Amino acid sequence: MNSERKAVILDFERPLVEMEQRIRQIEQMAQESGVDVSDRVSQLVNNYRQLRQEIFSRLTPEQRVKVARHPRRPTTLDYIQAMTDEWLELHGDRGGSDDPALVGGFARLGGQPVLILGHQKGRDTKENVARNFGMASPGGYRKALRLMHHAHRFGLPIITLIDTPGAYPGVEAERLGQGEAIAVNLQEMFALAVPIICVVIGEGGSGGALGIGVGDRILMFEHAIYSVISPEGCAAILWKDSTQAAKAAQALKLTAPDLLELGLIDQILPEPLGAAHADPVQATETLKRALLDNLARLRELDGATLMRQRYDKFRRMGVVLDG
Amino acid sequence: MSLFDWFANRPKVAPLSQEQQQREIADGLWTKCLACGALTYTKDLHLNNKVCPECGYHHPVKSHERLKQLLDADTWQPRNEHLTACDPLHFVDRKPYSERLREMQHKTGLNDAIQTGFGKIDTHPVALGVMDFNFMGGSMGSVVGEKITRLVEEATQARLPVILICASGGARMQEGMLSLMQMAKTAAALGRHRQANLLYISILTHPTTGGVTASFAMLGDLILAEPKALIGFAGRRVIEQTLREKLPDNFQTAEYLLQHGFVDMIVPRTQLKHTLAQLLRLHTPTSPPVGHRYVTPGFLLS
Ligand SMILES: [Zn+2]
């Protein structure tokens, strides 16, 4: 791991970092002086755990946005590599492009072959530039659709991992029909006769997230966010002031508990203490277990039932007054 | 002579004094073109579907004006007019959403940003949805999504073509993720309509952007656009700011989309009813189909 990734500390994590440093100092001093401080240290470690618990159990929406975007947060390929027995990445939309911001391929998960798709953020600046910060282009959505059609033909369940600030806002993306590419995916994902599980692992940015976000089960990590617009964008438009992002984050109801309450997601995946970046191994374990549980349940349904239930699920979304 | 030619040939300059002109513009008797500045007798402008007879500029139109322009007289049967939004997020920005809604309803006489229903175009029965940009920028929240979905479901049952006239800034932020999900919901309903081999024509008018572009607007079997309409997914400013890319002159216009293969044709508003009638006629079989049905290629696998 390079220093750039290690250096990232969110402001509300700072008390934890300071405490950690103090514990190290005491340990070192004890070693030098030969005095037994194990009681004192274990007490401090306890305090540390308690503080971490406190901080992460009452994160504000704005703080959750920061956690969801944490540069050390596990990415799609991190999870794939850690939880699958086999992984073969596939490339290309067969229309002239291969988008590195949206990856896909076959995997074996708990012994079963599946198709996994996901937005891919970079794990350092250089990779982020190469991967457009996980912002997919039309070619990415079309590659995803090609692979999903393939999964449908061969009866492979589909897993999508969502982690994007949004679809790529560029001239080339517009020229190639960003809106059309996403729209077609939304429609076609209702016509796939295989189980689809979508998981928001980090940042669920608007239409760019939804473009691979239609499924039978929608899961979300505890500190992930899913929003119609970025808090900064919303603040700039509605408050005419992008520094009001904290207010926008609050108002948009973009956290996992909010979305569960609104009936827009099915399940929240608890994160390890200190969030997924603090313990990627445990986060991977949680994800894998949730995927296998849900797959087992969905496998019992035939294709027609899956598609009907998927339609009905999204059909219910929305709140209106009638009459 | 077409109405359009007649307008083009009549005396062009309003024979009025400056002062009288100003007064009559204020009275609404004359309308000044937002593009070329030409003065047109307001009644005449309306007769020309609010297209400037001088330069062809398409003035914004309200949804009820659209209905009048497109449908045969007395054929409109509105549906779900009473659906209203109810602020499930208790959203407050500089003003509470509930207050914004009330103001908009008062200002426009509409309950939300779309009118849906059934009517006839040159005797052809159609399901029609017309978005209204005057209602919160035509933004799509739960009501717009629900009304479109109900319309498309009813049209699928009745085996009728669907026509949606888009005019929208995108998803309605004040309903958060509920708005985003309307993109999937409307796309799903149109998917079933499509699987039933029924015709869906989407008409992109100024402006059609964001979440509406990335859902039903771009899903038409046939996609028409009004001249010079702004059509795109990402906002121009966002693209300029984040990437500092120089934007092509006609970027995200109807003409740009035509050039790059995303719309079938650009149709001036004065020709729209005529063109729609023509398309509907071309999709009306002259004899009943004999045991042969096409498999809809979009759903190539179902
Ligand atoms: Zn003009």
Give the secondary structure arrangement, pairings included.
The complex is a heterodimer of chains A (323) and B (302).
Chain A (H helix, E strand, L loop, with lengths): L2 H4 L7 H20 L4 H20 L3 H8 L7 H8 L2 E5 L11 E8 L2 E8 L5 H6 L7 H17 L3 E7 L6 H5 L2 H11 L7 E10 H5 L6 E5 L3 E3 L3 H9 L5 H7 L4 H6 L5 E3 L10 H19 L4 H13 L4 E2 L2
Parallel strand pairs in A: 3-4, 4-5, 5-6, 5-7, 6-8
Antiparallel strand pairs in A: 1-2, 2-3
Chain B lengths: L2 H7 L8 H10 L2 E3 L6 E3 H6 L15 H8 L6 E3 L4 E2 L11 H12 L5 E8 L2 E8 L10 H17 L3 E7 L7 H20 L4 E10 H4 L8 E4 L5 E2 L3 H8 L10 H6 L5 E2 L2 H14 L20
Parallel strand pairs in B: 6-7, 7-8, 8-9, 8-10, 9-11
Antiparallel strand pairs in B: 1-2, 3-5, 5-6
Helix pairs in contact in B: 6-7
The complex binds zinc ion (ZN).
Task: Note down, in words, how this protein is organized.
The complex is a heterodimer of chains A (323) and B (302). In chain A, 49% of the residues lie in helices and 16% in strands. Chain A is built from 15 helices and nine strands. The longest helix of chain B is centred in the middle third of the chain and has 20 residues, at 176-195. Chain B contains eleven helices and eleven strands. With 302 residues, chain B is of the alpha/beta class. The model of chain B has no long low-confidence stretch (mean pLDDT 91). Residues 33, 35-36, 38, 52, 54-55, 57 of chain B line the site of zinc ion.
Ligand species: zinc ion
Straight-line N-to-C gap of chain A: 59 Å
Principal-axes shape call of chain A: globular
Number of helices of chain B: 11
Instruction: Please give the count of helices of chain A.
Output: 15
Which structural category fits the helices and strands of chain B? alpha/beta
Greatest interface and its participating residue counts: A-B, 62 and 70 residues
What percentage of residues of chain A falls in helices of 4 or more residues? 40-55%
> How much is the average pLDDT of chain B?
91
What spatial form of chain B do the alpha-carbon principal axes imply? globular
Mean of residue pLDDT values of chain A? 94
- What's the gyration radius of chain B in Å? 20 Å
Question: What order do the helices and strands of chain A follow?
Answer: HHHHHEEEHHEHHEHEEHHHEHHE
Describe the main β-sheet of chain B briefly: 8 strands, mixed
